[in-house]
Backbone:
């Protein structure tokens, strides 16, 4: 498992991450920023969305992080 984090203070809601990895990321209908999808989401607040993803999705998460124009996504 790997930890994925979206810093909502940096996120501009451009949709690049959910276009690249729709199985991991989605638009938050309240803030219009990115968040981790269920069942991977562990916490979600105004400041950040944190989740744990299986190893087979790590490559997709890293690709989304690289495609994020503001660097709001981190994969550990």
Residues:
């Amino acid at each position: 498992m790997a930890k994925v984090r979206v810093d909502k203070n940096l996120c501009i809601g451009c949709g690049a991450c959910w276009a690249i990895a729709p199985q991991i990321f989605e638009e938050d209908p309240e803030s219009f920023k990115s968040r981790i999808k269920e069942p991977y989401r562990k916490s979600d607040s105004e400041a950040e969305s944190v989740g744990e993803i299986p190893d087979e999705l790590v490559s997709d998460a890293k690709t989304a992080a690289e495609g994020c124009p503001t660097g709001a996504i981190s994969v550990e």
User: Anything to note?
Assistant: The chain has two helices and six strands. Strands lie at 2-7, 25-27, 34-36, 41-44, 48-53, 73-75. The CA atoms of residues 21 and 60 lie 6 Å apart. Helices lie at 16-20, 58-67.
